Amino acid sequence: MSILEITNLSRNFDGVLAVDDVSLTVDEGETVSVIGPNGAGKTTLFNLLTGLDRPTQGNMRFDGHSLTGLRADQMADYGIARTFQHGRVFGNMSVLDNVLIGAHTRRRAARPSVRALGLVSELFMGIVQPPAVRAEEGALRQEVEEILSLFGDRLLPRLQQPAYSLSYANRRRVEMARALALKPRLLLLDEPTAGMNPTETGEMLEFIYMLKERGLTLLLIEHKLELVMRLSDRVMVMDNGQKIAEGVPQVVRNDPRVIEAYLGHKQARPTPIPAGNEPDHDIAPSRPMIDPTVAAL
Ligand SMILES: Nc1ncnc2c1ncn2[C@@H]1O[C@H](COP(=O)(O)OP(=O)(O)O)[C@@H](O)[C@H]1O
Ligand SMILES: [Mg+2]
User: Fold this and answer.
1) 217: CA distance to ligand 1 center in Å?
2) Per residue in 175-214, pLDDT tens?
3) How far, in Å, is the centroid of ligand 2 from the Cα of 84?
4) Is the CB of residue 54 below 6 angstroms from any atom belonging to ligand 1?
5) What whole-number distance in Å separates Cα of residue 52 and Cα of residue 83?
6) What pTM was estimated for this model as a whole?
């Protein structure tokens, strides 16, 4: 059963067809990778699928609902979550609060009556904190800690630290934890191992594999082909906005058009890998990384 159906989707940026007539279906529980050279249109496709950008043509359906024209928060309500190519977390907020945002987003979606009360009532609830709300906060916090524990001791000991003080790899883990706190039905990962060293990359691969084993539907943009080969049930190859190949990893890998566009003369630039593990606290506060999915709430 396909959970996501993309039909003849296009995005034209003043004459640049970043996404050009792309169709794709993704089945429930499937892991589909989107690969292709830099500028192929992969991130633009993700932006369309998460409501950060609107298609100029075509349709998207998720679990029977049309996504076309919906805002980012409405797409999140359907259970579509993502991470960003360059990582986006709230630098001045703690690890805990960053991930709580994801959980709160889901709670709002699950309780339309609270939404109907409006912003003022929500703020009031936030200040007064009736017992039911406190209990819910406790439950949410426990949920967040459970999600963070999936990353071993990478994040749990840093629960109260501001995100800017974390290593790059940990900030990316926080972002993924926040996406998971939304309890997504579809998770889009845009180059989740970009900028990670081989150890961190291996850990992330195992992590994504665990999500896949748990049955989560995944769309993955990734340049590291070993990861793509290991994780994907299917691979879609894009070049110049178009889908140029699609199939099981082994077949796609040997497709002459793929070798030409992706592995041949236009090979994507290898992602720079920092030497060794970055220590935490070693990173200057980053520019504010605002997740528009969250900011739109
Ligand atoms: N907001 C935008 N305005 C204009 N052009 C854009 C915008 N976003 C992406 N593009 C262009 O669309 C094409 C695809 O970009 P992108 O989706 O980021 O590719 P990829 O993620 O595959 O590297 C590129 O030519 C890029 O310059
Ligand atoms: Mg990209």
Assistant:
1) 25
2) 999 999 999 999 999 999 999 999 999 999 999 999 999 9
3) 9
4) no
5) 12
6) 0.83
Measured in Å, residue 91 CA sits from the centre of ligand 1 at 26
| Nearest ligand 1 atom, CA 14 | 4
- Note the ligand closest to the C-alpha atom of 34: 1
Probe ligand 1: pick from 10, 11, 12, 13, max atoms within 8 Å of CB?
13
- CB of 10 shorter than 6 A to ligand 1: no
| Domain extent listing, the chain | 2-194+210-270+277-295
Q: Which fold has domain 2-194+210-270+277-295?
A: Rossmann fold (3.40.50)
Q: Could you tell me the distance, in angstroms and rounded to a whole number, from the CA of residue 115 to the centre of ligand 2?
A: 34
- Name the residue of 42, 44, 86, 188 to mutate for ligand 1: max ligand atoms within 8 A of Cβ: 44
Give the whole-angstrom CA distance, residue 272 versus residue 180: 27
Ligand 2 (single-atom ion) residues, CB below 5 Å:
42-43, 85
From the number of C-beta atoms within 10 Å of its C-beta (0-12, 13-18, 19+), residue 135 rates as: exposed
pLDDT tens string 72-120? 999 999 999 999 998 889 999 999 999 998 887 777 666 554 445 555 5
